[in-house]
Specification:
Largest sheet: 6 strands, mixed
Strand order of the largest sheet: 1-2-7-3-8-17
Shape: elongated
Distance between the termini: 23 Å
Length: 405
């Protein structure tokens, strides 16, 4: 398992470069005795589905990789999907890392590297549980499907492509790094861009120009006010968080010359929404906030501000704590660790929503303990990766049933 994780970390699977990691997963499935199958992303089908996120990049050559572990005899057990994503976020600024981000580094029980925790260790745990059970001469009584999907970090359209291709089950476990807890609820996420246009001029005559970069700050302030409104009286189970809805100003690009007043600035943001809230309603509130800032602030007079969408546009979901998959998984975790499983709601989003909302498959997240995800010196606790596989083995026994081969 550790060797497979190192191979996966060495594959720099940022957006548009997922192929190398998927090749490793195909080989891992084959070595486990399963036959890999590609599930391509169909741009037309995705753009025509209400659960898809908008995207401006080419996905025609992308594919998820799945492998089916067919039931043994006697069959008749419940089916299961174990899902994980191969894509990772950028490691920049790479010079801040203690070691190169795509060079796996072992330090005691920790393995460092971009994607080690989020979520390649979860992919390895999926492979590990199949190897372990097969090594014991066992097979599930219900179908178990392993999935390595793309685009979890930007759209969720990879997992949705699996759903659209009919890959659903009686339960889905996404092996995200939950630290051994069960995530049964999550927010939705909206990505948007605000383009502010001013009027360029020579820096020696700056008062004659309209600096779009500086105007963008006022737009961000208006969005912060919207964020504060969204955090008033959060519903359960998110009321345990002091600030569950987070606006993130993730990227900004403006101007093109130090001695020219910036005529354009584009800011890329992420904002969350509670389960039950509609993405279209949040879009309207974002657009209203930007329009109000542009019209109500005298400093912004003469500027134009436009909102566009590219990437995440997804709703949240909640699965009841007494749902069968939660109860059975909780029992498997307790038998593995000796402690009762913690169930929690997440202020982030995962691919679990696509199976829950559009596949009719009850979905949760459960996986290893990781630190520094999306940050510097990301790392995963290796014993927790093995423990995840052990708990999944017990879950398969109780959910699907096991039979001797």
């Amino acid at each position: 398992m550790e060797q497979l994780l190192e191979r996966l970390v060495e594959a720099p699977t940022v957006l548009g470069h997922e192929l190398a990691g998927q090749d490793v997963m195909r080989e891992a499935f084959e070595e486990t005795g399963l036959e890999p199958l590609d599930v391509p992303l169909d741009p037309a089908a995705l753009r025509g589905h209400p659960g898809a996120s908008p995207f401006s990049w080419d996905v025609s050559d992308k594919a998820n990789v799945v492998a089916r572990w067919e039931p043994g005899e006697p069959a008749g057990g419940r089916s299961l999907i174990l899902n994980g994503h191969i894509d990772v976020v950028s490691p920049e600024p790479a010079e801040m890392w203690s070691s190169p981000p795509f060079l796996p580094r072992r330090d005691g029980d920790w393995l460092y590297g971009r994607g080690a925790g989020d979520m390649k260790a979860g992919l390895v745990a999926m492979v590990g549980v199949v190897r372990g059970l097969k090594g014991l001469g066992l097979a599930p009584r219900g179908l178990v499907e392993l999935q390595s999907v793309v685009e979890e970090e930007c759209s969720g359209n990879g997992a949705l492509a699996c759903v659209l291709a009919g890959h659903t089950a009686d339960a889905v476990i996404v092996t995200e790094p939950t630290g051994g807890a069960i995530q049964n609820s999550q927010v939705g996420v909206l990505w948007f861009q605000v383009r502010v246009s001013g009027r360029p001029a020579h820096a020696g005559e700056a008062p004659e120009g309209q600096n779009a970069i500086e105007a963008t700050f006022r737009v961000i302030r208006a969005l912060r006010e919207l964020e504060a409104e969204l955090n008033v009286d959060p519903p359960a189970p998110f009321d345990v968080y002091p600030h569950p809805i987070n606006l993130n100003v993730g990227m900004i690009r403006g101007g093109d010359w130090p001695s020219t007043v910036a005529g354009e600035s584009i800011v890329h943001c992420r904002l969350a929404l509670f389960p039950g809230d509609a993405v279209e309603d949040l879009k309207r509130r974002v657009e209203d906030a930007v329009a109000a800032a542009a019209s109500g602030d005298p400093v912004l007079a003469g500027f134009e501000a436009e909102v566009a969408y590219d990437g995440f546009a997804c709703e949240g979901y909640t699965l009841e704590e007494d749902a069968p998959v939660v109860a059975v998984l909780g029992g498997a975790i307790e038998r593995t660790t000796g402690a009762a499983a913690h169930v929690f709601a997440s202020t982030a989003t995962t691919d679990a929503r696509s199976f829950q909302l559009f596949g009719g498959s009850p979905a949760v997240c459960f996986g290893p303990h990781a630190e520094g995800i999306h940050g510097i010196d990301e790392r995963v606790l290796l014993p927790s990766m093995v423990e995840t596989a052990q708990a999944l083995g017990l879950f398969i026994r109780d959910w699907c049933g096991l039979t001797a081969t």
